[in-house]
Structures are given as structure tokens and as C-alpha cells.
Amino acid sequence: MAQSSRKKPNILVSGTPGTGKTTTASLLADATQLRHINVGDLVKEKNLYDGWDDEFECHIINEDLVCDELEDMMEEGGNIVDYHGCDFFPERWFDRVVVLQTDNSVLYDRLSSRGYMGTKLTNNIECEIFQVLLEEAKTCYPEDIVVAMQNDCVDDISRNVTILTEWARSWQPAT
Ligand SMILES: Nc1ncnc2c1ncn2[C@@H]1O[C@H](COP(=O)(O)OP(=O)(O)OP(=O)(O)O)[C@@H](O)[C@H]1O
Ligand SMILES: [Mg+2]
């Protein structure tokens, strides 16, 4: 079951760190008046993590707590969920799953200028090269709701936001 009684669509914006999820989701929220939920920020605000992963240098999020926190909003609809993973969200939550993709050299520069280096940088670049997030999305959601979008330059963002805004406007609730 792809959708419940929600009157507005839920969109997941996924992709390797640095591919532009937050930038895109934020502009899309402005254009559509949907609610932008940055899962990373939510996890920090509400302490929805179990600890710190030394190898990957990131919080270990508690997936059950995140899903509990989001359930009511997702049921209501009208959300843009911004997260670099998608395998622990219920399939029924989303009407569209966007996977942003960025050229390796562009992503390398973005992540380096953010201070990423060593294993953390290499892991993220490999994640992008092997299209890990796109494969994950295709495994977890019906193929017809998963869409890959290139996000290298400013023109890409405008085009992607326009396409997704049009999609959101024409979305119809299940009858
Ligand atoms: N299309 C684009 N053109 C130029 N710069 C971009 C573009 N998209 C994103 N950026 C820049 O790349 C950096 C990463 O973008 P952003 O923070 O949106 O990525 P993210 O996917 O949310 O990353 P994270 O997973 O770490 O939260 C930012 O500095 C942003 O300004
Ligand atoms: Mg982000």
C-alpha cells in the first residue's frame, strides 16, 4: 500500500552526504509549502541516537525512535524527509523517493571543503561511485516512485525543484 488517507504527498530526498539533500529539500519546501524534516537535525534535537560511531565519525541513530517520532507527521502527509538512508522507513510512508547524485570530482570538492578527509571522505565517494543509495531505494520502494536526479550545479537544483514542485502539485490522494 503506497499511501493511506493522507491529503498531501510525502517525499523522501536521499543521496550520499554532500549531494545536496538539505539545499534541495529546503528550496522544495519553500516552493510547495510542504514541511522539510531534516532527520539528522531531528536526531540531534531529540536525542534519537544510541552513541557515536568512531569509525564512520557519526551518531548511531536509533531507527525505531526516529520512526516513532515521525509516524504522526507522515500519516498526516505533506512532508519532505531529508536523510542519507532509506532502508528503515516504512515503505507506505512515501509517494516519491528522490535520490540525488553528484559527479565524483564535484562531490570530492564539496566534502573536502567541509573538512572531510581520510576514510570518511573515501567512504562517501565510494558510496556515490557504487550508487549505494540508489540501489537501496530501488530495493526498499516500488521502482516507479524512485527517481534519480543529478545535482552538480545551480542549474540542476532549479530544474530538480521545478520538476518536483510540478509533481507535488499534480499529486492526487488515493480515492
Ligand atoms: N547544485 C548545487 N550546486 C552547487 N553547490 C551545491 C549544489 N547542491 C548543493 N551544493 C552545496 O554542496 C554542499 C552540500 O549540500 P547539502 O548540505 O545540501 O548536502 P546534503 O546532501 O544535505 O549533505 P548531508 O548529507 O551531509 O546533510 C553545500 O555547501 C551546498 O551549498
Ligand atoms: Mg543535509
From TrEMBL:
The keyword Nucleus applies. It is an enzyme of class 2 (transferase). ATP binds at G18, G20, K21, T22, T23, R114. GO terms for cellular component: cytoplasm; nucleus. GO terms for molecular function: AMP kinase activity; ATP binding; ATP hydrolysis activity. It holds the Pfam family AAA_18. It is found in: Cytoplasm; Nucleus. Gene3D superfamilies: P-loop containing nucleotide triphosphate hydrolases. It catalyses: ATP + H2O = ADP + phosphate + H(+); AMP + ATP = 2 ADP. One of its GO terms (biological process) is ribosomal small subunit biogenesis. InterPro entries: Adenyl_kinase_AK6 (IPR020618), P-loop_NTPase (IPR027417). Residues 38-61 are annotated as: NMPbind. Keywords: ATP-binding, Cytoplasm, Kinase, Nucleotide-binding, Nucleus, Ribosome biogenesis, rRNA processing, Transferase. Its EC number is 2.7.4.3. Residues 113-123 are annotated as: LID. Its main location: cytoplasm. Belongs to the adenylate kinase family. AK6 subfamily. Broad-specificity nucleoside monophosphate (NMP) kinase that catalyzes the reversible transfer of the terminal phosphate group between nucleoside triphosphates and monophosphates. Has also ATPase activity. Involved in the late cytoplasmic maturation steps of the 40S ribosomal particles, specifically 18S rRNA maturation. While NMP activity is not required for ribosome maturation, ATPase activity is. Associates transiently with small ribosomal subunit protein uS11. ATP hydrolysis breaks the interaction with uS11. Interacts with small ribosomal subunit protein uS11. Not a structural component of 43S pre-ribosomes, but transiently interacts with them by binding to uS11. This is Adenylate kinase isoenzyme 6 homolog. It comes from Protea cynaroides. The lineage of its organism: Eukaryota, Viridiplantae, Streptophyta, Embryophyta, Tracheophyta.
